[in-house]
Design a protein that fits this description.
Helices cover 32% and strands 26% of the residues. It is built from six helices and eight strands; from the N terminus they run ββαααβββαβαββα. The strands form two sheets. A five-stranded antiparallel β-sheet has the order 1-2-3-4-5, sandwiched between helices. It has a three-stranded antiparallel β-sheet with strand order 6-8-7. β7 and β8 form a beta hairpin. The longest helix is centred in the N-terminal third of the chain and has 18 residues. The chain starts with 12 loop residues before the first strand and ends in a 6-residue tail after the last helix. The relative contact order is 0.14.
Length: 185
């Protein structure tokens, strides 16, 4: 009999300044606080109540079990502080597998999103040999996220994808473009 368990352990990825790791209960208070911050959540559907933050949190952990990949917890190496969530995910209804990023306000503007997204993309392409590209879904008014996508050498396809009741743009990068040295590392 074969084991049909859906459990996939989350790897630990270390970058120069960050640790990308799996979800633990100790992350729930910081995650709940991040998802209650209006500035942080402005372009991702708005803030959520603590009960909804818990559901999201459980879904983030469950995404790993179902897909074998998902958002990583981003932790600052020096302080071990929770910095946000970054990594691959593929929600129902999404046009393609996405690498997304959400950081607490104190972590924004420091290059952490690029550093963590690049590390998660390297891991994703290494572990998903059939993956030809990944996308990022970005609100046209979200200039900081557009800058992250640009630093990752992603291209705005000008395709519109409606999510959370508003229109977003699809940015993408192919495996070939990522692997040829043009992507930020």
């Amino acid at each position: 009999m074969t084991d049909k368990t859906l459990y996939h352990p989350t790897p630990i990825i270390e970058t120069e300044r960050l640790i990308l790791r799996g979800w633990e209960m100790r992350d729930l208070p910081a995650y709940t606080q991040m998802m209650a911050d209006e500035d942080v959540c402005r372009f991702i559907g708005g803030t959520v109540r603590p009960d909804m933050a818990w559901r999201q949190f459980a879904g983030l952990a469950g995404h790993w079990a179902l897909h074998g990949y998902g958002f990583f917890v981003v932790e600052e190496k020096a302080t071990r502080a929770f910095m946000g969530r970054i990594g691959p995910h593929f929600p129902v209804g999404w046009p393609h597998l996405e690498i997304g990023w959400t950081l607490v306000a104190a972590a924004q503007g420091k290059g952490y999103a690029v550093e963590a997204a690049a590390a998660s993309a390297d891991w994703l392409f290494e572990t998903q040999p059939g993956l030809t590209k990944f996308i990022s879904v970005i609100d046209p008014a979200n200039r900081p996220s557009q800058k992250v996508a640009e630093r990752l050498r992603m291209t705005n396809t000008q395709e519109i994808f409606e999510v959370f009741g508003y229109k977003t743009e699809i940015w993408e990068i192919s495996r070939a473009a990522w692997g040829d040295g043009r992507a930020a590392r």
